[in-house]
Write a structure and sequence with these properties.
5-stranded antiparallel sheet; globular; 15 helices; 10-stranded antiparallel sheet; alpha+beta
Length: 555
Amino acid sequence: MKRNVVAFLGKKNLSIDELLDNTKAHSKHYLDPSEQSNNVLCLAAHKSPAEWSALFSSFKVDEKDFQQRTVKGVYFVKVEDRYVIYTFGYGRCLVNKSSIERGFGLRVSMNLGDPEQLKSIDKATLERVARNTRSQVLKKSSIQDFHFEFDHEILKSLTAIVDNGNDCLEMVSGNDSVSLYTEIEFEKFACISERLIDAYLSQDYKERYPWAEFIGIESDPTVIEKLEAKLLQRLNEILDSKEDEPWDVWLAPPEIIDYANFAGFVYPAEKRQGHSSGSHPEMNLRQFLLEANFQKKKGITIKTLKSKYIFLVDGTERILDKYRAYDALNGEFSLDEVKYVLNDGRWYHVKTSFAQEVESYFDKLPRWKGLECKPYHDLRECCYLRRIADDEEIALLDQHWVRNKEVPQNYEFCDLMTKDNRLIHVKHYGGSNVISHLLAQASNGVEMLLNSPEIVPQVQEHLQNTTINFYFDRTKPRQQTIVLAIIQARKGELHLPFFSKVNLRHHARNIQNKGFTVELAKIPVDKLETARVKDSGVKCKCQARTAECTKELTG
């Protein structure tokens, strides 16, 4: 009989009691009748009324007629010093998730499945809006047909045909658990178990998918517990010291901020009538730790970090939005010589060689110093851009809309343009997803330049009252330099979260491959002057502009 069998792999030297979730595993145990067998079947039954029964409460129906019985099954097969755990029905809820090998199913799938006969992959991006997507194909294909970009996407699972050299069709897929579609009879469990463990221990996947371990979501509770212990220790060190800008852990907005009404961040212990006191123009970790009023006995805990919020307020201290403190935390730690990254409330592990490549690319990317003498001290980003644009050396293109003739949607070609052909994109510093917005804007501008020639006259019209000229011929060598400029209050060199560096490398290499030069720039912040401007009550008067030829193009 062919069917899907679903299996987890228990950690070494654990008993069945340790592999079961004791809060849910009120189950009966049945020993395998085979001689000298250590295998055990666990069953748990549950009776409950159908969820939809309340709809018919006015009917005179006996309650027992609405009762439904579900049976959960878990079969433990001993192979040397560990168990392979097969689940049936909703049996997976009986398994203690902290006692299983994480990523077992994904590794088995990569080793058992034929890399030229993939059916689907699940992947997650590291972009500003994290996307979990499933790509499927009608024909059996290799990984190249799925457009998987290993330098900034995470492989979560794959489904593939098993090339076993005979006519017996098998299919395998998985992440933590593995699902194997195969011929199954009770007598075959032992053989299948040994086969799954051999596939898990095999190193073949490293040759088939050499990028598979570059970045992965860390889901092992034991590892996460150790990392969170390191995090708490580090936070206490920062709180007890005068370390204002630590390099290894920091706060950053997890989302792009609308600066139209934004006045600052507040870290209150409690909110009263929607108002608070004491706002900060930039997120500061030590200031948050000082103001968040952690209980003296318990101190800083993961629970309190997940329950405390950082609030965004306007000039009247009215709350505009809020983030969990834990989600705004960014950190980079090492554990057992492996690099781990905390980003958007999740932990990731990073392969050492890949981390070194990313850091090396970031360090070698050229820096442009042209804006270091023009510090930010403005109400909003748009106000800063308008202040420094002089129409001679720097022209303003922020909120100066252009359009593709096929798509009636406004785009920014760039924020600033210089006399020496630098196309500058500017964004406030934030978490990796905020920086991703900057990178996407730069990539989109390049694509428009190469593929939408109607963009050039629109840009030229926006520049007609300046001394700066703009021409572009895609058949000739590129004269333009793409500058990625980040407003950052942190002192010293430009600092980016690791995942921002990952995405930076991905986008910058694509832009470089199209013939353009890419540079990074840091815009410093004058904190005192920024605070004075925001306290002055001045209002933003920046307005968007659409070129006449843009209107004619799209109606």
